[in-house]
Design brief:
mainly alpha; about 290 residues; about 65% helix; 2 strands; elongated; single chain
Length: about 290
């Protein structure tokens, strides 16, 4: 029985060594992945901003003077670049300082908690590390989307009445609206808005004309005002769409998925060996504690 326990322990040691090796391979794979993802993500983010400013909301964008437009575009680039830079270093360590400038938008999104330092000691820890890295990636895309949307809203390009889930690129908003404009990483949502709130102060003349018409129509003054359906467009970075735009990123994602499948198999084998060890130890403890009654 002692030999059996020793053998299982040796098997577990070998599995731990395999876990460490897989961890090193996965680290290298993610490093290459992030290096190639960064420029693609920046390009897709800026392309989404371009479409929002020129196609979705051209009028408020044109109302900005040259200096304000230039400052807005510089800030957009800085917000996107800083967020991507923080994402790329996740494979090495957590950033301890912020690169945010005073003119960047602030939000309520929080970062992923720091993980243990011995990431690859067991298949379970390795799997947890990989899952948290993917959560960090997803969080970073959401953060970029949120900061860009907030910045465009503060610049009065996007409407001030956008629901918070849309502004934050919430999955709930994505399920409600979907991407129906054939532009990657943009969200198109139809929402109800009270007719008294559907116009901005710049449309003062139109509003006065509308109010005059309503006052002249005494028969309808007590009728309920039906909400107006308006279309909202916002940035919503989706990892699948970002990856799809670059064949190298897609290939590196495939390599990562293959390593993740190996980790899953290693986790199952490691759990089986752990259970086998417990059974062997329990059997040994039983034998050592058993005495025949006289």
């Amino acid at each position: 029985m002692a030999r059996q326990i020793e053998q299982v322990e040796q098997d577990l040691t070998k599995l731990k060594e395999s876990s460490s090796q897989l961890g090193r391979e996965l680290t290298a794979a993610y490093r290459s992945y992030f290096t190639n993802l960064a420029p693609t993500l920046k390009q897709q983010s800026i392309q989404g901003c371009y479409y929002l400013c020129t196609t979705c909301y051209p009028e408020p964008f044109l109302k900005l003077n040259y200096d304000r437009r230039s400052q807005l575009l510089k800030t957009l680039q800085r917000v996107i670049s800083n967020a991507i830079a923080n994402l790329v270093v996740q494979i090495e360590s957590r950033p301890t300082s912020s690169n945010r400038d005073d003119d960047e938008p602030t939000g309520e999104l929080t970062s992923i908690p720091v993980m243990p330092t011995d990431w690859f000691a067991t298949p379970e820890l390795l799997s947890t590390w990989q899952q948290n890295l993917e959560e960090e990636l997803s969080h970073s895309l959401k953060e970029i989307s949120y900061k860009v949307n907030l910045l465009l809203q503060q610049a009065q390009i996007m409407p001030s009445s956008i629901p918070k889930p849309i502004l934050e690129a919430s999955p709930d908003a994505d399920r409600q609206g979907g991407n129906t404009i054939n532009i990657p990483n943009l969200l198109n949502v139809l929402i109800e808005q009270d007719s008294h709130e559907d116009r901005q102060p710049d449309n003062y003349l139109d509003r006065k004309l509308q109010q005059s018409d309503e006052e002249d129509d005494e028969d309808n003054e007590n009728e309920d005002v039906s909400p107006q359906i308006i279309q909202i467009n916002s940035l919503y970075l989706r990892l699948t769409e970002v990856e799809f735009s670059d064949v190298n990123v897609l290939s590196l994602r495939k390599s990562i998925n293959q390593l993740v499948n190996k980790i899953k198999a290693l986790r199952r084998e490691y759990a089986q060996k752990q259970q086998e060890l417990k059974i062997s130890q329990a059997e040994s403890a039983w034998r050592n504690s058993w005495f025949e009654s006289p």
